[in-house]
Amino acid sequence: MQYLLRNFIRLPLYHYSQSTPSIASTLKNLSPSQLTQFNQLISNEDEKQLKLIAYLVQKLKPGLVPFKQVLLQQIRNKSIESNQDLEYAIKLIQKLQNPEFYLNEYINTIQEKRIHSCLIQINYKYPGLCSNEQLIKIKQQFPECTQEMVIKLTQLKQCQSKQQIYQKIQTFTPRDIPEQHNQPEQLEKHKFVTQGKIVLRFPPEPNGYLHLGHVRSIRLNFHSAEQLNGHCYLRYDDTNPANEKQIYIDEIEDNVKWFGHKPTHITYASDYFPFIFDCALKLIKENKAFVCEQNREDMKEYRKNKQPSPYRDREIDESLRIFKEMQEGKHPESKYTLRLKIDYQHANPTLRDPVIYRVLYTEHPKSGDKWKVYPMYDFAHCICDSIENITHSLCTLEFEIRRELYYWILTNLNLYKPFVYEFSRLNVSNNMLSKRKIGKMIEMGIVKGWDDPRLLTLAGLKRRGYTPQAINEFIDQVSVPRGGNEQIISIKLLENCIRKELEKTVPKIMAILNPILIDVEIDNNTIKQVYVQQDDVKVVGSPDFYGLTPNKQVCLRFFGVILCESIISEDERVKHIKVKLVTTDLDERKKLKGQINWLDKNDCINATVNEYSYLFDTENPADIPEFWNNINKNSLRIYDVKVPKALEYRIGDRFQFERNGFYIVDSIKDGHIYFNKIVGLAEGEKKSLK
């Protein structure tokens, strides 16, 4: 630790020259015990240094005593020249005693050695995010610094076991809202039904395919229920038939099964439409809801300005009659809505007499044309939670503002009230987690459908080659924070999760991307035709390139040393390569740095690789109104590849192509195999020939 401090304190970030009071006035501020310490520390210092030593004595807390001599030495060699320098050094010592400090520092603003320590720590916690080559150089340059950091981190990791996602549920605490408390008889009835078990639900709207952001909710609800011996519903929030389709309902259920979960019950909000309709009638009869005729624009303006609707005082009987006529199909879609009568001047805009029912003449995927009026999400959601005796209603932070409305509805309907908790929405860099915006990209032809492997939809991730285990590991690492919806998680962390799994589970094969056919002259009468990779060939070589280049010897792995005599190119494409076998001696082969992958022409078949990159050039495309202008034009590249003929290839099979990365068989058409690239090798692991 002292080694670390000496180097950090040597060049303070913020250095001030400061006029200090005279030494006599400084000493007046010291207690008798501090004066004793001062006399023990001083020797031949000048007045400025004496003042700093006096200031050091004042600042010495029990935790700083072991570093007293280090600080004193820095004062004497004039690395610390002001009170501000000394305060900075003390703060640094205090932070160094907590290694977690480094992860919270912005790397680009700190000193060189702190950058190195930060890289070491990040790589220790998230292997693969930092360049292995860079880390090796850092460890060589600062061995004491990095070794001490790793030791301390290891000790910290052993002492602190990570809290699992399902354990977090038991620590959630609610925001205090008076209406959230249940009556004793409601709570007793609820506990009788649930038998004291936790009851959760995953309530997606079937208006598109699920994406990575939904997995946080799947993991939090289903996994927690399984671990805590509770129940979890899969409930479709099918309150808007205009955007809902049976294909989405089926896909969502398949996604839940893909993650290995079995819902206790599969329900639909539409299952409860009769009861929800009766709840609306009850509120009208109690003068807590009214039928409104304002159009969308006027209603928005009135609510914004905290003005009452002109129809707010409509007679109860008239509202009842019109609402029933709305369900009977006697009125057009945009003429009437049913609104709650709460407080049009409320500070929370969601409580300014919100709409709870509207007319929709759209075929419903489950109930057909039975219903002409449909409840709004805010009205149906809380009632469904109550009917199903949900213990914990968990949703993302954008719904936090609606929590008061949730409890107002249940309180005024005299229904059981679940515990509500909001967590941060998941954002992943260089991609989009919004069903609406993904749908827009599909309409514009930017991507080829909901299962395009460039998307982070679950269907896209599945085609890309990701596994439920790797996705769950990613979710467990990012956990369920509540710090806001602005945080963006690096997609590299997701890539690292699948890479770590595939390194342990998939077979390695020799595959040649962008193959070039070469003739290897074995002797005067024998020619062996093999494929090598295009990036292993250069017409003009360089000292640090170990591939095929004229007048240079390289090794065909597991075969022999060859001499490249000439390379003929035409229009920047290699036309012919003349190669001669030199020797097959093992010792000679080992001497060469250039070890080239190859496949015999007679032992391989042709296939195609779809290589995917990040969909967007910018880290957070969601912040850009016209996000489609930031699409990465190279997000899909297509290559030829040669793979071994002897292997059997089935859709869904995964392989590691040596020196290239991990791939999955996406499809086989007329015997031709199409691979999707899952993820590349970790930095430093690809044996590049430069």
TrEMBL record:
Domain Glutamyl/glutaminyl-tRNA synthetase class Ib catalytic residues, every copy: 197-503
Keyword field contains ATP-binding: yes
A GO cellular component annotation in the UniProt record: cytosol
Statement: the UniProt record of this protein carries the keyword Cytoplasm: no
Pfam families (alphabetical): tRNA-synt_1c (PF00749), tRNA-synt_1c_C2 (PF20974)
Residue span(s) of domain tRNA synthetases class I (E and Q) anti-codon binding: 596-666
Protein name, UniProt field: glutamine--tRNA ligase
Biological process annotations from GO: glutaminyl-tRNA aminoacylation
Enzyme Commission number: 6.1.1.18
Any GO MF annotation of the entry: ATP binding
Keyword terms of this UniProt record: Aminoacyl-tRNA synthetase, ATP-binding, Ligase, Nucleotide-binding, Protein biosynthesis
PANTHER family xref list: GLUTAMINE--TRNA LIGASE, GLUTAMINE-TRNA LIGASE
Family classification: Belongs to the class-I aminoacyl-tRNA synthetase family.
Taxonomic lineage from the root: Eukaryota, Sar, Alveolata, Ciliophora, Intramacronucleata
Domain of life assignment: Eukaryota
Reaction(s) catalysed by this chain's protein: tRNA(Gln) + L-glutamine + ATP = L-glutaminyl-tRNA(Gln) + AMP + diphosphate
Native source organism of the sequence: Paramecium tetraurelia
Residues making up the signal peptide according to the UniProt record: none
